[in-house]
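Lecture 7, part B: from sequences to assemblies.

Below are the input chains for today's worked example.
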Amino acid sequence: MKNRLKVLRAERDWSQADLADRLQVSRQSVNAIETGKYDPSLPLAFKISRLFEMPIEAIFQDD
Amino acid sequence: MAVSAQVQKTVIPLLSVALGLVMGLGLHRFVPENQPLAVLLWAVLPVAVGLGGGVWWWRLLDEVAREAHKTAWFWGGSLGLMIGMVGFLFAIHIDPGLIRRGLWGGTSPEGYVALGILGVTATQLVGYTLYWAAWWLRRR
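Predicted structure of the full complex, as structure tokens:
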């Protein structure tokens, strides 16, 4: 699954560690999600969606 | 002083393993023989502490870390056990006297039981650890 996390994070000038702190996950987990190597659960996807104030489908796109 | 989650995630498993080792190795030294209740209490304590520590530790992990552990335990642990069994069968095929000589546990029934437990645990742990490391390496 593709996502726009890296772009959205860059727009806010957040590091992976900043985003990890806000989501209460590890930096390694943010990296795995951002690079599309791990698809987050629905609860985590909703958390990301609330953090960026965007709908889930604007952040994550099916391949 | 609050201990960070990262420190807790590292210290809890180490303390649990250390307690298990101390209690296991100290069984014959500190618990009198023919005292089944004392042996039971001595054995239950590290298991209870380890279980409690395991729940505490698990709650500190995020979902990605949990997925890594679950996948590694199923696939790595199962593969490790299977490879260990095949390796053991191969070893006794090329050296039929291996079992009669008792390997490392001696030739007593207790030695064979201990060797079996150790063999299953060690092969699963090796498989689990390698799979867990590979899982994270693929997601770097």
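Note for the exam: The CA atoms of residues 9 and 15 of chain A lie 7 Å apart. Keep this in mind when comparing with the next example.
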